[in-house]
Amino acid sequence: METIDSRKQDNNGLPPDQISPKEVISRFIVFKNQVVKSWKLIVTFIVLGGIIGFIIDLNQDKRPTFTAYITFNLGGSSGQSGMGDLGGLASMFGLGGGAPEANIFTGENFLYYVVSRPIISRSLLKEVDTLMTKQGHKDLMINYYIEHSGIRDDEWEEEDTLRNFRFVRGKDPKTFTRIENKALDGVYNRIKGETSIAQLDRKSSFLTLRTGQHSEPLAKIWVETLLETVQEDYTEKQSKKTNEMLQLMKSRRDSLAKVLGRNDSNLARYIDQNQQIVVAEGQLQQTKLTRNSTFLQQLYYSAVQSVDNLQLSLIKEAPLFTIVEPVALPLFKESHEPFAMKTGLVLGLMLGMIAVFLKVTYQSIMQS
Fold first, then answer.
1. Which of 11, 46, 78, 304 has its Cα between 20 and 30 A from that of 223?
2. Which residue ranges run through the membrane (predicted)?
3. 333: helix, coil or strand?
């Protein structure tokens, strides 16, 4: 009797916020017995979790994704004042002060410019070499994308017209039909989400152009074509004024060459026909033709020099795209293995155990 009373006294002497090991073991045994009794409930949760996971796995895209990226640096041109593009790149990443510039090639504007609709559309309509191991097989980038990206099965599954559609090379986008514009819009909206450009490192001016495609050759060709288009369009816009001046000076040079040629022919013919004439009027005409020839020669040589200078200016003003890290094969491959069913089984087991625990707790509360 004394031993039993002392045990009861020890249990009653525990603080209210503590529980004895005996009580823990007792509750664990009760919970285990309840789990054994409720095995049907647990199995039901596991089966439901597995079924939901299996359905998710069926609808999941199991195709691997190949990631291609190309790292480049945009250098400034010597014909620009100040820091040029390098200063713009510095302000792009928060290294410079002042208000943001309105130039599309500086600041955050350049990042939007690379993946803008005009650039992507121009890239899609370029002719590319679609065979990586052979030369001479050319096709439009957009046709190659439609064939190898999976857009026919993913987004155009019920569009028979689009599934069998191909763009014609050499056609002006301004003359596209409704179906051509619809196909171009669909490809643009999809490929823009698969393409990104970002700064490689906060302290550097290197930029990384990246894409993820289900086809390894497609990923490589697309990144290289897009960067090539950016370089072409950038150069055209940066040197637009100089090109206009160059075309004007070339036209002037050619016109002066024609006028100079006619004047020299007239002078030579006049000399041949009037070698023995000593009349002042004849000498005056010869002097006039000679003076015109000299003057036209000066203008012509000046125009030729201006054309040469403008051509040199185009070279100086052209931005320098330096590829720091080109696309390297094989590309990084990300496999999408089905895992939803396994996750559903585990979650079902956990939910079943939680349901049993809540049931035991509820019964304990009701008994007390």
1. 78
2. 38-56, 339-358
3. strand
